[in-house]
TrEMBL record:
Entry GO MF terms: 3'-nucleotidase activity; 5'-nucleotidase activity; exopolyphosphatase activity; metal ion binding; nucleotide binding
Binding site for a divalent metal cation: D8, D9, S43, N96
UniProt-recorded name of the protein: 5'-nucleotidase SurE
Cofactor: binding comment: Binds 1 divalent metal cation per subunit.
General function of this protein: Nucleotidase that shows phosphatase activity on nucleoside 5'-monophosphates.
EC number: 3.1.3.5
Gene this chain is encoded by: surE
Record keywords, A-Z: Cytoplasm, Hydrolase, Metal-binding, Nucleotide-binding
Biological source species: Maliponia aquimaris
Lineage: Bacteria, Pseudomonadati, Pseudomonadota, Alphaproteobacteria, Rhodobacterales
Subcellular location: Cytoplasm
Top-rank taxon: Bacteria
Length: 261
């Protein structure tokens, strides 16, 4: 088995080291783990690709490369350059520092890497570690992801439909903000929406008086619908959300067809 891993926190991120250990568990002694990850942090870039300028890539060792681009760029580089003659069997993206539950999924570079792999026809899983008061200051904030990650990926692959038409599925996994021992279980959950909270900007000024904006996230513990990903994460559960690149609202499409005649 051959696995390609990437992330959006950058080549030196601790979550990528956790993901490498998860991947090595999955491939076993005879498998291969290859890394193509952003040279610099790319959080919040979504499914961005560097379409109008080239991406520099550097080999750091026999199985590790850093690319000056987004996670989706890194997947493209991995599939069509680094591993062009020996494609991977699976792409993993993460482990992200912070959750990609609810609306965060729409901004996530971690999910952007998995989405690109799915568009390329490969099974792909994005993994993210929720941060909260019970784990943010722990010696290993990624404890839940590290201890449960390989088993979760195995269960997803075992349950994946054997035949898929149209846009291929990819999977959004979020580990709860607790220690591995405190995880209550694994559930399939829909993507949620945190109510009454949005991304926003904060104004700041440089010493020279120039005006800048910092993007701010919303309250990560805001109320959501019961049973959705963010709700179940805050209750101590690992969530798995199957996703596709198809953004069509099919129920609304049917209603619109009726309305338009």
């Amino acid at each position: 088995m051959r696995i390609l891993i990437t992330n959006d926190d950058g080549i030196n991120a601790p979550g990528l080291k956790v993901l490498a250990r998860i991947a090595r568990d999955l491939v076993g002694p005879d498998g291969e783990v290859w890394t193509v990850a952003p040279a610099f942090e790319q959080s919040g870039v979504g499914h961005c690709i560097s379409y109008t300028h080239p991406t520099m890539i550097a080999k750091l060792d026999d199985h590790t490369f850093a690319a000056e681009g987004s996670p989706a760029d890194c997947v493209l580089a991995g599939l069509h350059d680094v591993l062009k003659d020996t494609p991977p069997d699976l792409v993993l993206s993460g482990v992200n520092r912070g959750n990609n539950s609810a609306e965060n999924a729409l901004y996530s570079g971690t999910l952007g890497g998995a989405l690109e792999a799915a568009l390329q026809g490969l099974p792909a899983v994005a993994l993210s570690q929720y941060y909260g008061p019970d784990n943010a200051l722990a010696d290993n904030p990624f404890d839940a992801a590290e201890r449960h990650g390989a088993a979760v990926v195995r269960r997803i692959l075992a349950a994946e439909p054997p035949r898929q038409t149209g846009y291929r599925l990819f999977y959004n996994v979020n580990f709860p903000p607790v220690s591995a021992a405190a995880v209550r279980g694994l559930v399939a959950a829909p993507q949620g929406l945190r109510r009454n909270t949005r991304f926003s900007v904060e104004v700041t000024h440089s010493p020279s008086g120039r005006r800048f904006l910092w993007v701010q996230g919303g309250d990560q513990r805001a109320e959501t619908e019961a049973g959705c990903d963010a709700d179940m994460n805050l209750k101590g559960y690992i969530t798995v959300t199957p996703m596709r690149a198809d953004l069509t609202d099919h129920a609304a499409l049917t209603a619109l067809r009726d309305a338009l005649g």
